[in-house]
C-alpha cells in the first residue's frame, strides 16, 4: 500500500511541472483513513463536504434522477416514496430502493409468465408504488441492521 501512496504522491507532485492547469479531484466516504501526506498543501488540500439531503424534497429529486430510465406505472408517487425513506439514506441507498423495486417487479413478471402462462408480450413490465414501498421497507431494514451491528460493535470495544 505504501508504494501506491508514494506513486500517487509522485504523480501529484509532477503535475506542478505541467505547463497546463490541471485540477485533480477525489472523493471518499472515509477521509479519516487518508494518508496525511495526501492532505498537504498543493495536493489534496481543499475539502468540500457534501452532505446527504435529509428532507423529503431532496430525496424525491434524487429518486427522480436515479429512476429516469425506470418505467413506472401511473400509480407511482415519488413524493410518497421519498417520505417513507429514512432521512439517513444516502444516494446509494436511494439507488438501492429503485434497483430493488425493479427486481421485485421482474420476479413477479417472470412468475406471471412461467406459472400463470401469461404471454410475454402481455406481461406488464412496470414498477408500481407497491414495488417501491416493498423496496423502501427492505432497504430501511437493511440499513437498520447494519447500524445496529455497528452500535453493537462499539459496545464490544
TrEMBL record:
Keywords: ATP-binding, Nucleotide-binding, Repeat. GO terms for biological process: protein import into peroxisome matrix. It comes from the Eukaryota. One of its GO terms (cellular component) is peroxisomal membrane. Residues 75-119 form the AAA ATPase AAA+ lid domain. The keyword Ribonucleoprotein does not apply. GO terms for molecular function: ATP binding; ATP hydrolysis activity. Pfam families: AAA, AAA_lid_3. Gene3D superfamilies: 1.10.8.60, P-loop containing nucleotide triphosphate hydrolases (3.40.50.300). InterPro entries: AAA_ATPase_domain, AAA_lid_3, ATPase_AAA_core, P-loop_NTPase. Residues 2-51 form the ATPase AAA-type core domain. PANTHER family: AAA-FAMILY ATPASE, PEROXISOMAL ATPASE PEX6. This is Peroxisomal ATPase PEX1.
Amino acid at each position: 500500500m505504501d508504494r501506491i501512496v508514494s506513486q500517487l504522491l509522485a504523480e501529484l507532485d509532477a503535475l506542478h511541472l505541467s505547463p497546463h492547469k490541471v485540477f485533480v479531484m477525489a472523493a471518499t466516504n472515509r477521509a479519516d483513513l487518508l494518508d496525511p501526506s495526501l492532505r498537504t498543501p498543493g495536493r489534496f488540500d481543499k475539502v468540500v463536504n457534501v452532505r446527504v439531503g435529509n428532507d423529503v424534497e431532496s430525496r424525491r429529486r434524487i429518486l427522480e434522477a436515479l429512476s429516469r430510465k425506470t418505467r413506472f406505472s401511473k400509480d407511482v408517487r415519488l413524493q410518497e416514496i421519498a417520505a417513507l425513506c429514512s432521512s439517513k439514506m444516502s444516494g446509494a441507498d436511494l439507488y438501492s430502493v429503485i434497483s430493488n423495486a425493479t427486481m421485485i417487479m421482474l420476479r413477479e413478471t417472470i412468475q406471471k409468465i412461467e406459472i400463470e402462462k401469461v404471454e410475454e408480450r402481455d406481461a406488464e413490465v412496470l414498477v408500481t408504488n407497491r414495488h417501491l414501498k416493498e423496496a423502501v421497507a427492505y432497504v430501511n431494514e437493511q440499513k437498520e441492521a447494519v447500524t445496529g451491528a455497528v452500535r453493537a460493535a462499539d459496545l464490544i470495544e
